[in-house]
Amino acid sequence: MLGKEIRSNRLKNKKSGRMLGVMIDHPICHGVLPGIEDIDKRLKQIVEGRPDVITMHKGIAMKCYSKFADSGIPFLLKCSSFSPYQKNYDVMVSDVEEAIQLGADGVSVGVILGGDRQPEMLHNLGLISKQAQIYGMPLVAHIYPRGEYIKNELTVKNVSYAVRVAAELGVDIAKIHYTGTKETFRPVIASTPCKVVIAGGKVGNEIKDLFQMTRDAIDVGAFGIAYGRAVWQYQDPAKMIKALKLIIHEDASVKEAMKYLNLK
After folding, report:
1. How far apart are alpha carbons 148 and 128 in whole angstroms?
2. pLDDT of 75 over the 90 cut
3. What 3-state class would DSSP assign to 209?
4. Please, are residues 172 and 129 in contact by the beta-carbon 8 Å criterion?
5. Domain ranges of the chain
6. pLDDT of amino acid 204
């Protein structure tokens, strides 16, 4: 479908064909975290860094991102959320039609696998996948095997299951946690026909670790990243985005990205 192809191309860098996404959908899930108390200020800094796409909820799109409508940076509308009180259940809070009304270039939805609410969330994913196909909207699934029946969400078996479930239900891009090594992540990439981006939430506090994870994931075939706290909790979010761009779009080394931030 032409519309979907046009929108999908907006989500990736023309040179590398990869995606650097920034997430600002955290408050409903985790509370108002340090770094995004003043969302207008942080959004301005994120936009200055020129990521390929930003993911947000509808209220932030309407009240805050409208100021940056001329930035040319596409956004994904987050259509679901869990909460600090029901961490294993993503409830639908929006849909594809609302995303189109807001001018979004795609939609994203969360799915938690391995728990009692998995059937309901798979049902919702299937429905929004159908909507996205009808309207030509790219669909991203934040899909994590961390329900109450999962002992270790980072095993190859569990993460491969997650990305394959995403593909089976028509998802274009699956957002997952990195499994820890190239050797364990390579079979995850091989197990799905959809694109895969990694989340940043599970990485250690060291920036070098973040850059190494990014480099390793890209090396074995990841489509890109979708980071939140790692970007906007850094003292200079725009500069962090630009450092990550070096790795993702310029194929720079970890050392080169560290040097850009004046770090060893």
Report:
1. 25
2. yes
3. helix
4. no
5. 2-260
6. 55
